[in-house]
Amino acid sequence: MTDQFDPPRPWIRSYAETVPHDLPEMSGSLMDLVADSAREYPTAPALQFFGAVTSYASLAEQIDRAAATLRAEGVRKGDPVALVLPNCPQHIVAFYAILRLGAVVVEHNPLYTPRELRKQFADHGAKHAIVWSNVVGTIQEFPADLAVSTIISVDVTRAMPAYMRWALRLPVPKLRAQRAQLTTRVRGAIPWQQAVASDPLPQDVPGPETDDLAVIQYTSGTTGDPKGASLTHRNLLANATQARAWTPTVSRGEGTVVYAVLPMFHAYGLTLCLTYAMSQAARLVLFPKFDPDMVLQVTKKHPATVLPAVPPIAERLLARARERGVSLEGTQIGVSGAMALDHELVVPWEAETGGMLVEGYGLSECSPVLIVNPVADTRKPGTIGLPLPGTECRVVDPDDPTIDVAQGEPGELLVRGPQVFSGYYGRPEETERVFSDGWFRTGDIVEMDEDGYFAVVDRIKELIITGGFNVAPTEVEIALRQHPAIVDAAVVGLPSAAHGEEVVAAVVLEGSADDFDPAEARAFVKRVLTPYKAPRRFVVVEELPRSMIGKVLRRQVKEQLLAA
């Protein structure tokens, strides 16, 4: 076959025989994923949450009822609707109910601080929100210019089995504490159970089209300002289709199990759980947070066909399984992303599971998956793998993206494909900055070998990736400078076996280093930002290196800290 792409795609020579080189033209919308599965497998389990199971037929019905409620509250095609939810059945129903109306899902981390949530709501301007009960109070306290007119409150315990709901109401301190972590009483919001008690949406209400905006996915830039990646139905359909093509051994329908241990408000969890799993008519097992004991309990009866994870999750799960003597056998495909996968983890994982653990790579702007190692013996440890079907890649001079570097030489990765976004929501200048003649600039420095496998060797962006989450240094530095003892700060990511990178702050102090309390400073940042952004280590310095115009040179700070 002659490759019709320009430039050529040498990686397709390394594809497994059953993997297509390209994708069919996308049509329809994300709604087809659930509708097709509900039609073909109505009684099959779609969702499992603490043992409570929802069938595909029931899921489709709940989506229609929730969509009818949203429409009655004034949601129309193109309207942004905020989701502020942990992993729970209501999250999946709400996601597709919003899309059913042609409206736009805006995903949020429910553990964000009020300040962080306000910044994102100010950016997208949603007037309707479906919110975890524990966060409703935060949304209700927004200033008048950000006021949300409709709030639907979700009590996640309502999706648990009846015996668990009953147990959580017992007058036992430990159970009361667990219940308080999961839900709280709220006023002035529509209860979720009322939202799904509506009559179903009439079938003649038009749904979304392929090129309609589907999701605004927030990603941190180096400035720390929230930027929403605009992802269309075409983008997300393409990425789910690419994932299915990459896993041809995964059968569609009952018997296929996907674990949602990654948060679905994150692009990685969204695609592999909210879209890929639904397209496979799989049993999606939902975990509100990663708890190795909880995962092992499910593994005994329903081992994962596909387990999307980050290395720390795989490592903790493996260690706990060995500690408890629980077998991981039957876990077929572990997909690792967001940070480098150590081959020292792959070997014992595959010995324990009898399956495979492969590394991939992506960005929120790309729905998010771009490159994955083959789920076959041809995968190459230490690489991120091969571009997915229909994906084009170039390796270019980062100072002049019109010049391709020689094969094997490091350069910036540029990508093009059906999963690549159209731009940042409401930010045309930011969008223009990340595209070069139609190619998206990833900001990552890679090398490609003779077989088309890619390896990440550096990042142009100063973004820190810790435990799979992005941290913008500027955002943390702004928070640190509000501390009364800190005059100046530079935040960098340093290598960490447990987290990929850990957030480290070099700080210039007002007074003596003897009077500085790192634990108190860390707690201070946690009051402003979500906990994973708080520095794990502080290094006191006399001054920070700066450029001629006074800009802190983070790269020099990082080099100095590494040398020390």
From TrEMBL:
Keyword Mitochondrion attributed: no
Domain AMP-dependent synthetase/ligase: 36-425
Molecular function per GO: acid-thiol ligase activity
PROSITE patterns in alphabetical order: AMP_BINDING (PS00455)
Keyword Lyase: no
InterPro entries in the cross-refs: AMP-bd_C, AMP-bd_C_sf, AMP-binding_CS, AMP-dep_synth/lig_dom, ANL_N_sf, ATP-dep_AMP-bd_enzyme
Domain AMP-binding enzyme C-terminal stretches: 475-551
Domain of life: Bacteria
Pfam family of the protein (one): AMP-binding
This protein's UniProt keywords: Ligase
PANTHER family given in the database record: LONG-CHAIN-FATTY-ACID--COA LIGASE, NONRIBOSOMAL PEPTIDE SYNTHASE PES1 (EUROFUNG)-RELATED
Xref: NCBIfam families: PRK05605.1 (NF004114)
Name of protein: Long-chain-fatty-acid--CoA ligase
